[in-house]
Write a structure and sequence with these properties.
Helices cover 37% and strands 16% of the residues. It contains 8 helices and 8 strands. Strand 1 and strand 2 form a beta hairpin. The chain has a single domain, classed as Rossmann fold, CATH 3.40.50.1950. The N terminus is likely disordered. A 6-stranded parallel β-sheet has the order 5-4-3-6-7-8, sandwiched between helices. The protein starts with 6 loop residues before the first strand and ends in a 14-residue tail after the last helix. It has 213 residues and is α/β, with parallel strands linked by helices. Helix 2 crosses helix 8 and helix 5 packs across helix 7. The structure holds flavin mononucleotide (FMN). Flavin mononucleotide binds next to helix 3 and helix 5. Belongs to the UbiX/PAD1 family. InterPro entries: Flavin_trans-like, Flavoprotein, UbiX-like. Its EC number is 2.5.1.129. GO terms for molecular function: flavin prenyltransferase activity.
């Protein structure tokens, strides 16, 4: 295969260096990334940076609360973040491509995901584009990963996560592992983002994998 340095999504899996002009190249599908207003907006920012570096096409939706947290928790500007995406949608744009199942994507990551958005997804309460796009992923049986961030949880939160899991979504709270001996906060963030990208079929080298003792 010719090395064209391009990430291709094929049957839900992203592979590197697909031959230029091959059938696979025609099947490149975007990944939907949503940032919501939970603490840890940096997880969404980091996911976007990595996907941008890997040349995975990202369709981005940012909630108002996520934009606020970007200001509170980081030094990033909204315009900086948006510049990394292939396409950016307004959260109120219910006529956007990703609001329809006929628009093909390789799935969606919500990072971080608030309890509010989790609740809306669990109940198919599709009153904004993030929740509608997530609901489309579930109905089309596409991969949906929610990096739910809250602590502690009450029984209602756990019920919502159970419901989304039953619908086919994957709950992946950003809970760090330490077997890769993280030295920095960035190492901890990359490990969680790496786990999410694993589930979305994106090849990466964000952390050192456990390979036995
Ligand atoms: C600094 C800050 C941190 C927050 N952290 C969380 C959190 O970790 N989890 C959560 O569910 N909500 C959190 N919230 C509350 C949400 O932002 C709020 O419920 C908002 O309405 C969520 O809207 P969205 O899901 O459309 O982004 C936080 C709010 C602020 C201002």
């Amino acid at each position: 295969m010719g090395a064209v340095g391009k990430w291709i999504v094929y049957g839900g899996t992203v592979v590197l260096n697909a031959q230029k002009g091959s059938i696979m190249a025609d099947r490149q599908l975007p990944l939907i990334l949503a940032l919501t207003g939970a603490s840890g907006v940096i997880y969404g920012v980091r996911a976007l940076e990595v996907l941008h570096e890997l040349k995975v096409p990202v369709h981005l939706i940012i909630s108002d609360a996520a934009a606020l947290n970007l200001e509170i928790e980081t030094d990033y500007r909204l315009s900086q973040i948006k510049a990394l995406a292939t396409r950016v949608y307004d959260i109120t744009d219910m006529a956007a491509a990703v609001a329809s199942g006929s628009f093909r994507t390789c799935g969606m990551l919500i990072s971080p995901c608030t309890i509010k958005t989790l609740s809306a997804v669990a109940n198919a309460f599709n009153d904004n584009l993030i929740v509608r796009a997530a609901d489309v992923c579930l109905k089309e049986r596409r991969r949906l990963v929610l990096m739910v961030r809250e602590t502690p949880f009450h029984a209602g939160h756990i019920e919502l996560m159970t419901r989304v899991t039953a619908l086919g979504g994957i709950i992946l709270p950003p809970i760090p592992a330490f077997y890769h001996q993280p030295k920095t906060i960035a190492d901890i963030i990359d490990q969680s983002i790496g786990k999410a990208l694993d589930l979305l079929g994106v090849e990466h080298q964000l952390f050192k994998r456990w390979s036995g003792r």
